[in-house]
Amino acid sequence: MLKRLRGFSLRAKVLFAVVVACLLGAAPAWSYWTASQSVSNTQSLKVGHLDMTTAQSGSVSLSTSQLYPGASVAQVYQIANVGSLALSFYANGWATGALGSGLVVKVTNASSVTGSFPSATCSGAQLPPSATALPSASPGALIAYGTAAPDRAALQPSTGPYAGSPSTSTICVQAALPTSAPSALQGQSSTVNVQFVGRQVAQP
Amino acid sequence: MSAVRRGRMVGRVRREQRREHRSARAITEGAGVFRARSRRRSIVIVATVLVLLAVGAVPAYAWWSKSATVTNSVTAATLQPPTNVQCTNQVLQNPKISWTAPTSGPNIGNYRLIISGGALVNGATLTQDVTGATSATFNSGLLSAAGTYTITVETVLYQWTSAPSTTSKNVTIALSVGSLGLASCS
What gap in Å lies between CA A47 and CA A100, rounded to an integer? Predict the structure, then answer.
């Protein structure tokens, strides 16, 4: 075989060698890095509906008595999760009417009103953000809890596969006229609006 | 061919060569300008996209929400004035002014006597506060001049005051020297 190649030119010999090398399996060389990780946690998907009610609805009279300097009225609101998914809520407040600007508000999570008019009060510590005055227009000011998910008050559904506790919560709103209230507020009125906003728990 | 004709021919050929040269250079410059504009446009587009991504690119998300609003009405009271204002002369002292407390509206028992007329001009008034009582001895020391003064009474609750009583009484000071004026009902 080699003797037969002697008669060929150098170029033909080189070409022959390349062809033989290719035929014998000269595959292109390559390599790569690899890594793998097993994931053990699982993601759950809950399907249901989001709903919330208040024990009071529509228009409520804070008190049948009329406010005057040094007097206070209070009202407890019960919020219930009547849906099938967990939610968390916060509350806004605003007061329309001439009397609204003179009101001093205190919001706690008391479940009942302490005392009676003219000294009806909400016991307990004032809920953040500790608002004491209400703006005159919607959407008002934040009066209970916060709008961010970690700051809201959680409510679990009372029935269904995701039922939990607590499924209800109470908010006590106290409105008072300070002794420094101007005489011009006599005979004036106000509509105090309390808006509860519930959002799904997984929302930021 | 004469030398003259050959010279003209050479001149024409050179002019045509210069024209072609200028034309070619114009085309090259035009292409350069076009390329420069195109590059600037690309830079502006890329920069705009980068700025939008850096400043305004927020993650999009949505959530379910439910709200409920409760409205509450609240009304402020109106102070009612006292009624039945009376003036009673007393021996060796100024007269006693008395009145009847209002039967409606808030009241913590504080009142104010409003003194007007007499030597008080241009609607000027003087006041005498009374705490926790429905009568008071008229304080003539407030006045420095003789005259007949009209007294009405208001209900007072902190900063709030009622309208003046609808009834009033007159008190006359015949002679006043400093705080020694002696008054009597009139």
Answer: 42
Q: Which residue of A has its CA nearest to B156?
A: A183
Q: For chain A, what's the residue count?
A: 204
Place of tokens 């400043």: B55
Taking a C-beta distance cutoff of 8 angstroms, is the pair A51, A160 a contact? no
**Claim to verify: residue B43 and residue B123 sit in the same structural domain:** no
Cis peptide before B95 (omega within 30 of 0): no
CB-defined contacts A:B, below 8 A: 142
- On whether both B51 and B92 belong to a single domain, the answer is no
Other Cβ atoms less than 10 A from the Cβ of B78: the count is 17
Is B68 domain-assigned?
no
- What is the extent of the structural domain holding B98? 83-185
Count H helices and E strands in chain A, helices first: 2, 11
Q: Within this chain, do residues B39 and B99 fall inside the same structural domain, yes or no?
A: no
- Tell me the per-residue pLDDT of B71-128, one tens digit each, with 9 for 90 and over: 889 999 999 999 999 999 998 889 999 999 999 999 989 999 999 999 898 999 999 9
Please answer whether residues B108 and B155 qualify as being in contact, where contact means their C-beta atoms are separated by less than 8 angstroms.
Answer: no
Question: Does a structural domain hold residue B69?
Answer: no
Tokens, residue A123: 């016991």
Residues 41-70 of B with CB under 8 A from A: 61, 63-70
Residues B87 and B178 placed together within one structural domain of the fold? yes
The tokens for B179 are 């705080």
Domain assignment of residue B77, yes or no: no
Query: Rounded CA gap, A40 and B184, in Å?
Result: 100
Domain assignment of residue B33, yes or no: yes
List, as one string, the DSSP characters of B142-181.
G--S-EEEEEEEEEEETTEE-PPPS--EEEEEEE-STT--
Nearest CA in chain A to B105: A66
Q: What ipTM was reported for this prediction?
A: 0.72
Q: How confident is the model at residue B25 (pLDDT cuts 50, 70, 90)?
A: low
User: Can you read off the two tokens belonging to residue A125?
Assistant: 């510590």
Count how many domains chain B has: 2
